[in-house]
Amino acid sequence: MNTPLSSLTTATSIAQAVRSGDVCAADVVDRYLAQIVIRESDVHAFNLVLTEEARQTAAAIDAEVAAGRDVGPLAGVPIALKDNMCTRGIPTTCSSKILNNWKPPYDATVVDRLSAAGAILIGKTNLDEFAMGSSTENSAFGVTHNPHALDRVAGGSSGGSAAAVAAGFAPIALGSDTGGSIRQPAALCGVVGVKPTYGYVSRYGLIAFASSLDQIGPFATTIEDAALVLDVIGGHDPQDSTSIPQAHPSLRQVLRTQDVTGMRVGRITDLPEGADPDVTERLEVAFDTLRAAGAVLVDVQVPAFAYALTAYYLIAPAEASSNLARFDGVRYGLRVPAADTNAMYSATRAAGFGPEVKRRIMLGTYALSAGYYDAYYGRALKVRRLIADDFDRAYRDADVLLTPTSPTVAFPIGSKGDNPLAMYLCDLYTIPTNLAGHPGMSVPFGTGADGLPVGVQVLAGTLGEAAMFRAAAALERSMQ
Q1: Count of CB atoms within 10 A of residue 269's CB?
Q2: DSSP secondary structure string, 314-366?
Q3: pLDDT score recorded for residue 332
């Protein structure tokens, strides 16, 4: 071994070293498992740590390398997986009692692609139950703490994945983003978080929250690592009818060959107010940074942006009420015995779902009910169309847009739990992109109040990942 393990801090460097035989995948895994032992009891990023399974996979990879075979672009890279993605024979709970100890009979497509690329699954991460929340406090298995300040939230709903990367438990993690659930925790934990274009990454094996909004994406410590993972997990999947049936350009190649010279960076002049001063200050620095790197700043308007939160909290709960109807105690998961089927169904769902999930199911069912469908759900869909149209017009003048990711830095645990509206406002700047189906990512960009991380959000139009990553890389370079 010529390369010290301590110098391998990114997925890219780990994979290069393992593929060349310079380091052993087993040693890499043991290093990350040791970090988990040290801090996991404080952070609680994981619902399940796969210690022995990870070591077995690492040994198999080392044997392949010794035999002269290329094991893939993520060779020996430990990866944490949000616990709403199916893993064959391994519990997948969605952090809900109703799926406690359920073991899927198949792997999600992203799991298959990660495995084929040589990645090593090191654990399943905590989340807000069924991905419904912005703080990872709504979990049946406890709260995830922010590694930068243990009394603060990690964000949500993919807080466990964000915290795992921030705490050094894994160089890469996957999350799902329905209204900001990758980008917001990435911002609060100071890591890179990417929500690709809807359909860029297969949703097969992702347990659905809101099917027209959900999208899988990576957390990483660097832009290059995020690009590497997206190059692996992206692409068409015939098992997902919403998967985009075309090849995607290599984002790593884009980063090697292109910068932001001449790029048009949009400032949304009618952006809703709500961000704290420390956050908006970092956003202004980001605009200045891209201009200094050769980009051109342009003003754009997205009038319907202000209505996104309202539309989202009708559309997403409506889809959730339909998707979660399958958890009835009959086919899998929790079953509470009762005198008859209807009583069992009611008792199971009452015991299995937490308060936030019940709140959203009730809201969604109401919005879809006879007499209210047109007044609520139907109108929300019209607003969704307006939002997409407004973004499309903005992208005629701009290649990317910049906004805050989160209105605030990480807030104290328990400070918003009694006020659902205050919690929902955490996703003020992330939700519109989900409604439009466009890509967005959060880039760590300095610190704000109490020295906590601030994320800047880079947005682009449909399949605009290349431009988005170029702008993100320029921001990252300015912080080095």
Answers
A1: 9
A2: HHHHHHHHHHGGG-SSSSSS-----SSHHHHHHHHHHHHS-HHHHHHHHHHHH
A3: 85
Active-site position among 82, 124, 195, 416: 82
What residues contact 202, with CB distance under 8 A and at least 6 apart? 108, 109, 110, 216, 233, 235, 236, 237, 239, 240, 243
Residues 6 or more apart from 445 whose CB is under 8 A from it?
Answer: 282, 285, 286, 454, 455, 456, 475, 479
In the prediction, which pLDDT does 130 show? 98
Distance from C-alpha of 445 to C-alpha of 289, rounded to nearest angstrom: 11
Sheet holding 264-268, edge to edge: 46-49, 120-125, 78-82, 172-177, 215-220, 192-195, 440-447, 453-460, 400-404, 264-268, 296-300
pTM of the model as a whole: 0.97
Report residues of the chain scoring pLDDT below 70: 1-2
82 annotated active-site? yes
- CA 124, CA 147: separation in Å to the nearest integer? 17
Q: How far apart are CA 124 and CA 158, in angstroms?
A: 11
User: So what's the pLDDT on residue 1?
Assistant: 53
The confidence score (pLDDT) of residue 210 equals 97
Please report the pLDDT score of residue 331 as a whole number: 85
pLDDT of residue 219: 98
Catalytic pick among 95, 139, 181, 406: 181
Question: What tokens appear for 37 in the block?
Answer: 């032992």
Distances (CA, A) of 103 to 106, 107, 114, 248: 9, 10, 19, 32
Quick one: DSSP state of residue 85?
Answer: B
Q: How far apart are CA 158 and CA 138, in angstroms?
A: 11
**Which CA distances in Å does 365 have to 312, 315, 325, 383?**
14, 11, 10, 19
Q: Percentage of residues in the chain with pLDDT exceeding 70?
A: 100
Q: Which residue's structure tokens are 């942006």?
A: 305
Active site residue 157: yes
pLDDT at site 438: 98
Can you read off the two tokens belonging to residue 8?
């391998």
